[in-house]
TrEMBL record:
InterPro entries: NADH_Ub_cplx-1_asu_su-1 (IPR017384). Keywords: Electron transport, Membrane, Mitochondrion, Mitochondrion inner membrane, Respiratory chain, Transmembrane, Transmembrane helix, Transport. It comes from Tremella mesenterica (Jelly fungus). This is NADH dehydrogenase [ubiquinone] 1 alpha subcomplex subunit 1. Belongs to the complex I NDUFA1 subunit family.
């Protein structure tokens, strides 16, 4: 027995809705990662390097190729509440 054509319209609408939602979610996820793919299986070392990159460049995904850190890097430490003697 053939499928009635009336069933194809809701099926097409559902397919388009799921595809549009998935595509928009993927675009939003990449936009928050500086248009790079998301990171998976992040361990403690990766988190420390991401924090260092954020302090150097202002972005978690940005990386710097400069051999010398800028002067601001010395004062924007994550240990702001600890007094240095």
């Amino acid at each position: 027995m053939p499928v009635p054509f009336e069933a194809l319209i809701p099926f097409g609408l559902l397919t388009v809705c799921f595809a549009a939602t998935g595509t928009l979610f993927s675009i939003a996820k990449r936009a928050t990662n500086d248009w790079k793919p998301p990171r998976y299986n992040i361990d403690t070392w990766d988190e420390m390097m991401m924090e260092r990159d954020r302090r150097l460049t202002g972005s978690f995904r940005g990386q710097s190729t400069e051999p010398i850190a800028p002067k601001e890097f010395a004062t924007n430490s994550v240990w702001q509440t600890e007094r240095v003697n």
